[in-house]
Amino acid sequence: MEFPNIYQDEPESSNNQARRPQQPQEQQEGAGRGKIEIKRIENTTNRQVTFCKRRNGLLKKAYELSVLCDAEVALIVFSSRGRLYEYANNSVRSTIDRYKKTCADTSNVGSVSEANTQFYQQEASKLRREIKALQNSNRNIVGEGLGSLTFKELKNLEGKLEKAITKIRSRKNETLFAEIELMQKREIELQHANMYLRAKISENERVQQHMSLMPGGGSSHSHHQYHQQSMAPDSEPAYNHDARNFLPVNLLQPDHHDDHYSSQDQTVPLQLV
């Protein structure tokens, strides 16, 4: 599709050419091959003729654009006398409504985006100020940057530090007392364990002394069995009525070979406990 060249005159009818005033020869030669200067036509008749020709060409191009490109086209033209000329492949009103809606949506999107940008900028500035204030406060706590503070600000800083020191000392004492209490409990547990071990050692020594008083030092089996019984404080003492746990009484007396055999019937068993 070819678009009209606005710098080139369209062909006119013979009647229009007759009614059109003749331009000076110098202007025709200077224009060259139908080119005219783009400015308001002062002659009323020529202006009206040009308007009609250009209007018809514009309407034709709008129609061709809507058909060839499947575009929604609406054309509104008002002449210098206020006369309306329009063209639309659908409806001029519907096209205008669509145009207004599109402009409103675009405006809303732009306004929302602009509002969001402004909000984030304000928040960023606020956060930067807070960060700077915290940095200055931290520097003041460690004794830096005090030259710019007034007497009142220094007094407030001193009060804050004293309160902080009081809280720190209180927490330190609580932690220390808790550790001392834990160590005392641990000490009591160790003392109980020590007493228990001492009792077991004493009991083991008594068992060994008792076994050493037996003839021959006692059998290893009896010693092991008695040791197991003594190491079980919560259980009932179990007595094993074994013949090896009974000793004749006369064995504790001086050895008389002849009397031993003669008094076998009078032997009284002695049970070890």
Number-wise, the strands total: 4
Question: Segments where pLDDT lies below 50 for 5+ residues?
Answer: 1-32, 232-273
Order of helices and strands: HHHEEHHHEHE
Residue-averaged pLDDT: 75
Strand order of the largest sheet: 1-2
Q: What percentage of the residues does DSSP assign to strands (E)?
A: 5-15%
Number of H- or I-type helical stretches: 7
Radius of gyration: 62 Å
Helix proportion range: 55-70%
- Rough shape? elongated
Report the sheet with the most strands, covering strand number, pairing sense and barrel closure.
2 strands, antiparallel
What is this entry, summarized?
The protein is mainly α. The chain has seven helices and four strands, in the order H-H-H-E-E-H-H-H-E-H-E.
List keywords for this structure.
273 residues, mainly alpha, two-stranded antiparallel ribbon, 4 strands, 6% strand, elongated, disordered N terminus, MEF2-like_N, Floral homeotic protein AGAMOUS
Show the helix and strand layout.
Blueprint: H1 14-19, H2 25-31, H3 44-69, E1 74-78, E2 84-88, H4 92-141, H5 151-212, H6 220-230, E3 246-248, H7 257-262, E4 269-271
Antiparallel strand pairs: 1-2, 3-4
Helix pairs in contact: 5-6
